[in-house]
Amino acid sequence: MAAVRRLVMDVLKPHDPTLLSFTERVSETESVAGATTSLIELDQEVQNVKVTLEGEDIDVSAVEDTIEGLGGTVHSVDQVACGDRLVTDRRTLQDG
Amino acid sequence: MAAVRRLVMDVLKPHDPTLLSFTERVSETESVAGATTSLIELDQEVQNVKVTLEGEDIDVSAVEDTIEGLGGTVHSVDQVACGDRLVTDRRTLQDG
Amino acid sequence: MAAVRRLVMDVLKPHDPTLLSFTERVSETESVAGATTSLIELDQEVQNVKVTLEGEDIDVSAVEDTIEGLGGTVHSVDQVACGDRLVTDRRTLQDG
Amino acid sequence: MAAVRRLVMDVLKPHDPTLLSFTERVSETESVAGATTSLIELDQEVQNVKVTLEGEDIDVSAVEDTIEGLGGTVHSVDQVACGDRLVTDRRTLQDG
Amino acid sequence: MAAVRRLVMDVLKPHDPTLLSFTERVSETESVAGATTSLIELDQEVQNVKVTLEGEDIDVSAVEDTIEGLGGTVHSVDQVACGDRLVTDRRTLQDG
Amino acid sequence: MAAVRRLVMDVLKPHDPTLLSFTERVSETESVAGATTSLIELDQEVQNVKVTLEGEDIDVSAVEDTIEGLGGTVHSVDQVACGDRLVTDRRTLQDG
Amino acid sequence: MAAVRRLVMDVLKPHDPTLLSFTERVSETESVAGATTSLIELDQEVQNVKVTLEGEDIDVSAVEDTIEGLGGTVHSVDQVACGDRLVTDRRTLQDG
Fold first, then answer.
1. What is the pLDDT of residue E95?
2. Second label for B47, Cα 20 to 30 Å away, from B6, C54, C58, G5?
3. CA-based nearest distance B79→chain A, Å
4. pLDDT digits (tens, 9 = 90+) for G8-54
């Protein structure tokens, strides 16, 4: 199977655990070399966060298990990079 | 024949397989060194994704077979780079 | 536990201590390698500041203690980076 | 004669050959080190594409022959770089 | 005490001394490695300038003394960087 | 005399010679290391082009002779860089 | 005295001498390592130009003498960098 090198997800999570604990736990998932979370929006019930993960071969279902174990939901997967080479998405004339 | 070094496509795909499986499968196609997919838009039936591929000499019809085998359709080819040198598309005064 | 490598917070603080003293004190917190604060907005009572911290393994509760000891309140945690690799949040087609 | 180092053209081409075949053929033209094509717009009859070529001394009339042999028309030449040094067009205060 | 590595201030100053003399004098303050001033706005009475200072450990009260000795007023401190590492303020999804 | 290192001009030229021949000829002018031309606008009679030249010591009147010999007119000189060091024009708070 | 390392000025000058001669003469001023001028605007009487100078220790009054000797007027000094280190003006959240 091709190695998953980078993953960007849009996640909904409850306020508890905090964004800090959530990020620590996600980054501790086996196969994740680093995780960065950025707050998109928050309301009384949930936080909407952008999660960016990198690794040599990310075990995505383990990551999803971690997120769900923390009460979170993957709202959408926004970017996936696979293969031997980490390819950068470049802006083209067709991007909005 | 000139080597195809980079390819950017606009693809429509069903929700199943997921963007993750889709990207893994595309990146496993012989001749592809790496693949990155970015979600453009989704509705109830389909996902519209931008696919960026790099390789030393991409076998584009093999890639198209993979995409079609996964239920996807290439909506448009938005950028193609061929040759010994990978040429970057630079912004000019005529770009919109 | 995963190492916290970078932290961006939105903080409300009184005018006293000054932004300078506040930043010195936050950066002196054990585990913080450097701190940069940027003024977002100020009114008669409070300053709203963006705080960016980096370190090999930031002790976030010690940082929060420092901020609260200076009369400040963490209004929101806007970005957290954890893990062996410091992952950069990259713009995708889904960012607003 | 001065060496042509980079050329950017706005080209109209029929749908057949595809953008892929078109780019392969243009990049195979003697003197072309690499070619990148980007889709600007398409309608039922034609594709409007931006073609960027680089080489040590591009034989522009050979390139034009290739394009015309493929049914394409050079709508405008948008940028030309000649000489020993490849000079970058930099934005000035007079650019729109 | 933590070292102050960079400081950005919004300063109001009279027309005399000139921006040149003002900048020379500020940059001559003990502990300042370099100073750059940029004109924001001017009216008949005052100049509003952005002052950026760097040093290994800036003595901010000495800088303030210099500015006040030149008839200037620090209108606001807009950015402070302290610590062993000079941390860059990066744009997040929460920046306006 | 100080060496002219870079020159940006706004030029009006007839359609004949083509932008390609025009650029080749300008770049062949003694003292010019490289020339890049970018199309700004065209109407039935003339092409309006931005010409960027670099060299160790550009002979500007020779360049103007070349341009005029090709039927062109220098509409304005938009940027000139002279001296031992090639200084970059940086954006300031006063740029529009 | 602190060394002046970079200077950006907004200058009004007559059409004669040309921008080319003007820049050559300014860059020949003792202490100037390089000068770049950019056209901001022109009307029938005058040219409004942005002048950027760099040097190890620019003699600003000699530069002003050169400019005035050429019929020019310094309309405003927009940026001054002094000191051992050339400090870059970085964008902050308070910039307009």
1. 87
2. B6
3. 7
4. 999 999 999 999 999 999 999 999 999 999 999 999 999 999 999 99
Nearest C-alpha of chain E: how many angstroms from F93?
6
Which tokens is F1 given?
A: 């005399």
Whole-angstrom distance, CA of residue E95 vs CA of residue A18: 21
Q: Do C40 and G93 touch (CB under 8 A)?
A: yes
C-beta atoms surrounding C21 within 10 Å: 14
Q: Which residues of E touch A40 (CB under 8 A)?
A: 93
Which pLDDT belongs to residue F90? Answer: 87
pLDDT tens sequence across D26-51? 999 999 999 999 999 999 999 999 99
Check: CB of residue E37 under 8 Å from CB of residue F80.
Answer: no
- E and A adjacent (3 or more CB pairs under 8 angstroms): yes
d(CA G51, CA G22): 10
B10-36 in b/e form (b: 16+ CB < 10 A) is: bbbbeeeeebbebbbbbbebeebbbbb
Q: Which residues of A touch D (CB under 8 A)?
A: 92-94
- Residue D17, preceding peptide bond in cis (omega within 30° of 0): yes
Radius of gyration of chain A measured on its C-alpha atoms: 14
Euclidean distance between CA atoms F31 and F36, whole angstroms: 15
Single-letter amino acid, residue C81? A
On whether the A4-82 domain is CATH 2.40.160.50, my answer is no
With pLDDT > 90 as the criterion, what percentage of chain G qualifies?
90
Contact between B94 and F50 using a beta-carbon 8 Å cutoff? no
Contact residues on chain B for D26, CB-CB shorter than 8 A: 82
Asked if F86's CB is within 8 angstroms of G33's CB, the reply is no
> CB-based contacts of E91: which residues, under 8 Å, 6+ apart?
none
Domain extents in chain G: 4-82
Q: Which of E9, E11, E80, E85 to mutate to test the interface with C (most CBs of C within 10 A)?
A: E80
Residue pLDDT, tens place only, F47-56: 999 999 999 9
Q: What is the pLDDT of residue F36?
A: 98
